[in-house]
């Protein structure tokens, strides 16, 4: 190999990632050697709106993976957050609606901004 | 194995017919709509008669000595269908021909390879990993063993990682072996030029970067008939060819295309509209903006009329499509400029280092005393091809008209 320790982690498991990185960091600092971490995840959407990944995978595969892939949902399944009083449904709803408002506000502000000057097409090519 | 032999000896023509026929349904315009200059162009050959009489056509079938076009058929095709038709003929007639690239197996992101994997098998039409350097290198290796390797680079913008393979390996293969080895079987197809929403990495015209790679050929078609004939010539050419297809024309350029096997010559420019007062030289998408500019010149709309002196409106401009960019047809261009004494070159790529500079210098050398105005280049600006203001970056009919007028009245 390359003299590196390696570890493969389920990237969508918050606690697993935390533990793995903690251990990897300890090994780096104590051993003076690099650690390679392979973070396994899954891309649910298409590469872009112009692509159709259904040509390469079954829709059922995506549906199955979707259930398991959201790290926030999985963490909350532990019920840790609720039982420790860190988070609850009310907090969730308030955060969701606040964020939605913020996004819409940003959108509206951006839409009212005038198009840049045509000369902007020529700026930032070089430092000078 | 047996199936493949049967397929190549069986009249694959009828099979091809079906593949092409099933996908010639009416096409809706792409997301940005058809460019108006393409939609209103008179340069497309829309009848069977005019298509069969395309200048320079050389029929490649058994009856090629028969110049009678009477029995030959045409079919309405857009540019990507013409590409597919050419590829289908190439694979049907050449057992060693294979097609490979990213996403080509299911039909390609621009549908250029639709149905080919089904028709010729996945051993002959297959996907590669995401690596342009690998695609080019793999193609060079295949071609060096005598195979016909038709590689696809998904966007011309991505040909840059393959630049080392193409310039240092492909271009020099024949030269460094003193002619003992060659890779003529290599053809690299790639969609090029702006499309309206491509942004920095889906709009570039990189043909200029290859001008220094002698040993390579670079070809850019403007229409379905041109595309099919030039692509078949490129595939069969004894030198490696980079074939750049203007992507905005894939759906908007439509013509009646002869369904038989035919070739159009490489390294020969085509005079589309004869003229005597100025030579307008271009290739690819800008051909149609040039055509629009000429229409604006002869009959300007009320908004432009005050700006165009009537004396200029009767100028006869000669429009030339260069077609092969490297090696380019010096004779045709210089002969034209010696007659008209004025040259305007149009291309989407930026001015600095663009092909226009090379042409201007060569024409200046050969026709210096004939010229009555400096050679004018109407090009993209020297900025990356950004998403914003693309319309002001790529040369359009008005800017081309401005350059023509300035050169006419120098």
Write structural notes for this entry.
The complex is a heterodimer of chains A (128) and B (410). By secondary structure, chain A is mostly helical. In chain A, 50% of the residues lie in helices and 9% in strands. A two-stranded parallel ribbon of chain A has the order 1-2. In chain A, strand 1 (5-10), helix 1 and strand 2 form a beta-alpha-beta unit. The longest helix of chain A has 24 residues, at 89-112. Helices cover 36% and strands 18% of the residues of chain B. Chain B is built from 17 helices and 16 strands. Chain B has helices spanning 2-9, 12-22, 36-39, 48-52, 79-93, 116-120, 132-144, 163-170, 173-176, 224-236, 249-252, 286-298, 310-313, 330-340, 355-367, 390-393, 397-408, and strands spanning 58-59, 74-78, 97-101, 125-127, 148-152, 186-192, 217-219, 241-246, 254-258, 262-263, 270-273, 278-282, 317-321, 324-326, 343-350, 376-380. In chain B, the strands form 4 sheets. A 7-stranded mixed β-sheet of chain B has the order 4-3-5-6-8-7-14, with helices on both faces. Chain B is globular, with a radius of gyration of 21 Å. Residues 1-26 of chain B have low confidence and may be disordered. Chain A binds chain B through residues 50-51, 55-56, 115-116, 118, 120-122, 125, and chain B through 103, 106, 109, 381-384, 386, 388-389, 392-393.
Compact description:
Chain B: Its cofactor is thiamine diphosphate. The complex is a heterodimer of chains A (128) and B (410). By secondary structure, chain A is mostly helical.
The largest beta-sheet of chain A arranges its strands as: 1-2
Strand order of the largest sheet of chain B: 4-3-5-6-8-7-14
Whole-Å distance between the termini of chain B?
A: 67 Å
Shape of chain A: extended
Summarize the amount of helix of chain A as a percent range: 40-55%
The oligomeric status of these chains comes to heterodimer
Strand content of chain B: 15-25%
Secondary structure tally: strands of chain B: 16
Query: Low-confidence spans of chain A: pLDDT under 50, at least 5 residues?
Result: none
The main sheet of chain A comes to: 2 strands, parallel
Note the overall shape of chain B. globular
Number of DSSP helices of chain B? 17
The computed structural class of chain A is mainly alpha
Q: What helical percentage do the residues of chain B reach?
A: 25-40%
- The pLDDT mean of chain A sits at 91
Helix and strand string of chain A, N-terminal first? Answer: EHEHHHH
Query: Distance between the terminal alpha carbons of chain A, to the nearest Å?
Result: 46 Å
Keywords (chain B): Oxidoreductase
Enzyme class (chain B): oxidoreductase
Protein name (chain B): 3-methyl-2-oxobutanoate dehydrogenase (2-methylpropanoyl-transferring)
Pfam family, one (chain B): Transketolase_C
């Amino acid at each position: 190999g390359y003299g590196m320790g390696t570890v493969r982690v389920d990237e969508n498991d918050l606690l697993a990632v935390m533990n793995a990185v903690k251990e990897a960091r300890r090994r780096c600092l104590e051993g003076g050697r690099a650690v390679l971490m392979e973070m396994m995840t899954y891309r649910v959407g298409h590469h872009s709106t112009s692509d159709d990944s259904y040509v390469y995978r079954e829709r059922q595969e995506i549906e199955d993976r979707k259930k398991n892939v959201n790290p926030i949902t999985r963490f909350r399944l532990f019920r840790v957050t609720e039982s420790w009083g860190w988070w609850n449904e009310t907090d969730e709803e308030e955060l969701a609606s606040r964020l939605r408002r913020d996004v819409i506000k940003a959108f509206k502000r951006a839409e009212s901004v005038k198009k840049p000057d045509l000369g902007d097409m020529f700026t930032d090519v070089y430092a000078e | 194995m047996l199936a493949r032999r049967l397929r190549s000896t069986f009249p694959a023509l009828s099979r091809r017919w079906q593949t092409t026929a099933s996908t010639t349904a009416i096409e809706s315009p792409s997301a940005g709509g058809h460019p108006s200059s393409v939609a209103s162009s008179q340069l497309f050959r829309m009848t069977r008669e005019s298509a069969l009489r395309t200048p320079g056509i050389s029929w490649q079938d058994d009856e090629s000595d028969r110049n009678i076009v009477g029995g030959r058929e045409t079919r309405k095709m857009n540019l990507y269908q013409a590409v597919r038709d050419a590829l289908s003929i190439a694979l049907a007639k050449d057992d060693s021909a294979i097609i490979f690239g990213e996403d080509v197996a299911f039909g390609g992101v621009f549908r250029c390879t639709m149905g080919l994997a089904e028709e010729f098998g996945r051993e002959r039409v297959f996907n590669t990993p995401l690596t342009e350097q690998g695609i080019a290198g793999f193609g060079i290796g295949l071609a060096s063993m005598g195979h016909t390797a038709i590689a696809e680079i998904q966007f011309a913008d991505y040909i840059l990682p393959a630049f080392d393979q193409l310039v240092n390996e492909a271009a020099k293969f024949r030269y460094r072996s003193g002619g003992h080895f060659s890779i003529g079987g290599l053809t690299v197809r790639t969609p090029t030029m702006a499309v309206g929403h491509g942004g920095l990495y889906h709009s570039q015209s990189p043909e200029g970067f290859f001008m220094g790679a002698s040993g390579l050929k670079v070809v850019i078609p403007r229409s379905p008939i041109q595309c099919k004939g030039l692509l078949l010539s490129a595939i069969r050419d004894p030198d490696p060819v980079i074939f750049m297809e203007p992507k905005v024309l894939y759906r908007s350029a439509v013509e009646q295309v002869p369904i038989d096997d035919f070739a159009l010559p490489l390294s020969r420019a085509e005079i589309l509209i004869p003229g005597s007062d100025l030579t307008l030289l271009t290739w690819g998408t800008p051909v149609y903006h040039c055509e629009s500019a000429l229409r604006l010149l002869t009959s300007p709309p009320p908004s432009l009329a005050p700006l165009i002196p009537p004396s200029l409106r009767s100028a006869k401009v000669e429009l030339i499509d260069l077609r092969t960019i490297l090696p380019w047809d010096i004779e045709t261009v210089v002969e034209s400029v010696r007659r008209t004494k004025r040259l305007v070159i149009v291309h989407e790529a930026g001015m600095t280092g663009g092909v226009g500079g090379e042409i201007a210098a060569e024409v200046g050398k050969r026709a210096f005393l004939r010229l009555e105005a400096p050679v004018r280049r109407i090009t993209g600006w020297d900025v990356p091809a950004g998403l914003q203001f693309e319309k002001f970056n790529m040369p359009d009919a008005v800017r081309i008209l401005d350059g023509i007028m300035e050169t006419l009245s120098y």
